[in-house]
Amino acid sequence: MQKQFILLLCLIVSATSFSQELKGKITEASATGQPIIGASVQWLDTQIGTTTDENGNFSISYKPEFTKLVISYVGFTTDTITVSSSNFINHVLVQNNDLEEVTISKERKSLQKSYMKTANVTTMSSKELLKAACCNLAESFETNPSIDVNFSDALTGTKQIKMLGLTSPYLVITEENLPSVRGASQAYGLSFTPGTWVESIQITKGAGSVVNGFESISGQINTELIKPVNDIPFFLNAYGSTDSRFELNTHFNKKVSDKWSTSLFLHGNARLGKNDMNDDGFLDNPLSKQINVLNRWQYTDMEKGWVSFLNFRYMNDEKQTGELDFDKNRDKFTTNYWGSEIKTQRYDVSAKLGYVFPDMPYQSIGFQTAFNGHDQESYFGLNKYDINQKSFYSNLIFNSIINNTLNKFATGLNFTYDKYDEFVGVPNISRDFNRIDNSVGAFFEYTYDNTTNFSLVAGARVDNHNRLGTFITPRIHARYNPWEKAVLRASAGRGKRSANIFAENQQLFASSRVFDILNTGGKIYGLDAEIAWNYGVSFMQGFTLFNRPAEVTFDFYRTDFQNQAVVDLYASPQQALFYNLDGKSFANSLQLDFNYELATHFNLRTAYKFYEIETDYLSGSAQRPLQAKHRFFGNLEYETHITDKGQQWKFDFTYNWLGKQQLPNTASNPTSDRLPDYSPSFSLMNAQITRTFSSTFEVYVGGENIGNYKQDKAILGSDNPFGPNFDSSIIYAPIFGQMYYAGLRFKIK
Q: Which domain covers residue 352, as residue numbers?
């Protein structure tokens, strides 16, 4: 397979190296030189044209006979410039001040899928994050059908995300393309990034790019934080909810000089009240408090081609949950009352340095490096789990072209180091699991784009890992536009990763299950590395329905595991087994989207999803537990016109229907602690109303689970939490019921 892949790559390179393209960047004539998004770029007297992306960049096919390029954008003076070569173009558009009474604007969608990108990428802007109670990254995907948001357990209040039917460890989750949520932070790491810090999120379905490592199997989620050079001087967000959660975010920004800018982000949240809406004697949500501080520095010298970022971050998070009468000072590690505490401290230091060659703007070199420490101390009743991870990552990337700018490549080296100090204390395991993982890798990725209807990204990387050995990771993405407003994509790739079986399954500690690792020959807890191939196709078609824009999308992806660290909850309700896959394990994911503009500022977004996820367990082949085969998603958003004073109303409604889910085996439990084989299907509804009073002040109110659906029997054995049947990990639905919230946002521009 690897030889065939390399041969295919060589054939593609040789067959596509003859075309030319013109690239450039369009900015506005202002002190900050902001990029213009969606500007029209077209050759005069032709049908060949394109638009600028979110960074103001464009690429368009070039021939020597094309000499006049027309650049236009609403509210700016249209320019026609003379082009005599395919050299990179930097052009500045001047605002048209002649428009007095009529203002025309083009609104950018808050959730975008491009017709021109090679990979299947969905981009969420910060505007999308404002449509719901997006307190942190884990809660950022409620209005996005590409990501499924699930509940991990009945005690910690943690939300877990899935894509293509697979949990977050099979995703590469990055922050500005630096590793973010991995290893020790898999269970709670998404809640460590406040939503107000986020500028945009890019969600990539499929294996991803070889530039970002070898671990990605189902896709990548990359978060872009607000850049100091683009931030406003002051921002405040305050939030409170009926589940006793309160939150405060403040942003400070200062332009230190013409090249240096800095931002200080401060975040604090706390849940102060005890809630037991299902009357089982246990907290529905943990008592919690978090302090999170981020200081960013940005250096930009566009004339000389330099840009750099420095980030310094500290986070402290504490959670307490358990029985209502649990007192941590009195009852810790006793059988008086069942309780749990999870204390996490984390610090991060990262730097990015980029240089674009002034005379060769298609050529650049970048260096990324990050160091972080993650320290978690926790106990769950009489079970104890501590993990400390220190990580170092560096990546050197060189970008250039082959003959012309239609044929590009990226190549480089990266190094990863992880030191784990881990202690597991459960009835049959009480020991340290300490290890050091390190790897060094080299990658090469080729990109071809004829700027009209075809593009391809193909790459491979070679890594040497002290535990996984030396191996090759190939990946390929292709795009074809068969006709207007249509795009067909295909991708294939391989991923390999070490499963951190305890950090990724911490919900199991909040149970009386006995942990058994059945294999001893592997190098990660006795298990072998997980290896999988992911294949996928996607088709998107835009069209007009009743004179309004509409869009349909079809996605199908399959993941085949060559090996997997199987977590088996079918063997017994008193056991959690971990072992290497012996047989087949696969995940099929199908998604159908229909999006439609019902009226001006009134949009409908719908999706149907089907999952077929099966694994060969010791007891036979079965569906992955706690995964709905069928899901339906719907979202309605409406905004009024913005008045001259900046006033506006915004309304948002989200509906989710989840079909039945297969549940872990509880057949041997007493009748009172048994669950059926399948959960019932159910619906969830969320809504939010935002009132904008001016460009600097707005308030919002909303509700989650306004239909008040709650899971019956969320905690098994809750009347005897130290008995053999106690289990809080079998959660398929909310346990809290209705939750309402309100907040405000204030800016100084």
A: 111-748
